[in-house]
Amino acid sequence: MSGSITKFQPYLQYLILLVLIYLVIFLKLGSFHMRWWDESMFAVNTYEMIQNGNWFALYFDNNPDLYNTKPPLTNWLQVIFVKLIGYNETAIRLPSAIAAALTVLFVFEFVKKYWGNVEAWFTSLVLLTANGFIHFHTARTGDSDALLTLFTTISCFAFIQYTQEENSKYLLVTIAFLLLGFLTKLYAALLFTPAFLIILIQSKKLKSTLTSPYFWVGIVSFVFISFGVLYAREITTPGYFYELIFKDAGRVFVEVENHKEPFFFYIENLFDYRFQLWIIPALLGAVITLSKSDSHNRKVQISILWMVISYLLIISISLTKLEWYDMPLLPLLAILTIPTFKLIYSEIGNLIKTYRLTLLFGFIFLLPFIEMFNKSQANTIPPGQKTYEANEIFLSRKGHQSFLQNSFVLSNDWKGSLLFYKYKLHELGTEINIINSTGQLSVNDRVLVSKDELKSQLKKSFELEVIDQHNEAVLYQINSVKR
After folding, report:
1. Cβ atoms of residues 191 and 310 within 8 Å
2. pLDDT tier at 2 (50, 70, 90 boundaries)?
């Protein structure tokens, strides 16, 4: 009996890990409304890509979209899930959720290979309880950062394996996943490459790498494929290259959309909430690695540290900063915690029995995991954002109601997420119209509105009857025109 248990033990631990991943990443993934900005922008681009059949250019509200300059890989993946399960919140978010889940699994496998099973569990649980890895703009929303994180993480791991094992196939894997990262979020995929150069110099492998046919096959393929995808978009959307060069590439030196932040913005965020529980163990782990020349897998940890420094330094120098840009760092920071946990584990392990030690570490991660589970299910957003997104929340909760047929949504704000619901409801057989002026309304119309100033305009012009309401969003019936 014990032999059969031992035989299935590896499968059991993967089952447990998959259950934990499901609870914080996949459970109720489509239960909250479509968020403003990036998520809804991708959702609209994806729907219109399906409708117009243009697989390389992005469209928004049936016009060429030069605001979203990212290549279309994220949209292609979203199209697959829309085709499979329909146009809804879950389909748009599944590529991100799957990417985050795969990142955890790759971290588990990488750490297990170089350190061991216990350390693999440490790092996986750190990642699953990191605020910056789970929740909005990351694992549970339909934008590009979770995919970028998966691709950069695999490329970093493959590069380390190349330097450790001198197997050229890992060099090709490194470049292949850099390419996928580039097709997801352009230059952000390349922010680890300065560290690659430093590591090659340190390991005395720069010359052999530059003279390797595998390197040049990879580089030529990277250039050919990436340029081909970008050029295909330039052909269908003239002016794309201009936006690409002077908008995306300029983020390092130019403030974009009032997102200028101080140099220590990302470091402060890591301490405050993005990696709040685990940043001190990560820093201590880096110190332990640097101070012990004979530490286990020191070269791997030094490589991880160089990668963290490279990426963090570049995004910190950049004038344009957004909090979720640090997501690709988090799997690597999780690995930096290993020496700290190993030290604690070895010190306490001398005092207490192994099963008690396992329970102790289970308890350490239990409360953070419960907190993360509650956050991922509550999907709480700040009151101000809830006010701005009140119409979307209403449509998410009540979009199936027949009284919305042929109604209007009055809004003078960003309409990306409203377009998502317009398209989603259209697929379900309900038509709504988005307008920005009361002059487009007449008697017997039904209109959804959430902003106080627009409600005031309506009340000055019409006699209104409340049909339904959720928080600030109110659906009115226009009964007559005021004289």
Report:
1. yes
2. very low
Residue pair 146/97 in contact by the 8 Å Cβ criterion: yes
Q: What is the pLDDT of residue 1?
A: 39
What is the Cα 402 distance to its own chain's centre?
Answer: 34
Identify the burial level of 236 via C-beta atoms within 10 angstroms of its C-beta, where 0-12 means exposed, 13-18 middle and 19 or more buried. Answer: middle
Tens digit of pLDDT for each residue in 303-340? 999 999 999 999 999 888 889 999 999 999 999 999 99
Amino acid residing at 207: K
Q: How confident is the model at residue 365 (pLDDT cuts 50, 70, 90)?
A: confident
- Rounded CA separation 206/60 (Å): 45
CA 470 from centroid of its chain's CA atoms: 29
Strand segments (E) across 364-470: 407-410, 432-435, 446-449, 462-470
Phi, psi of 451 (to 5 degrees): -75, 140
Consecutive H or E run containing 266: helix 265-269
pTM over 0.85: yes
**In whole angstroms, what is the distance from residue 357 CA to residue 355 CA?**
5
Contact by Cβ (8 Å): 341, 161 = no
In this structure, the number of other CB atoms found within 10 A of the CB of residue 319 comes to 15
Q: Pick from 109, 94, 185: which is nearest to 141 by CA?
A: 94
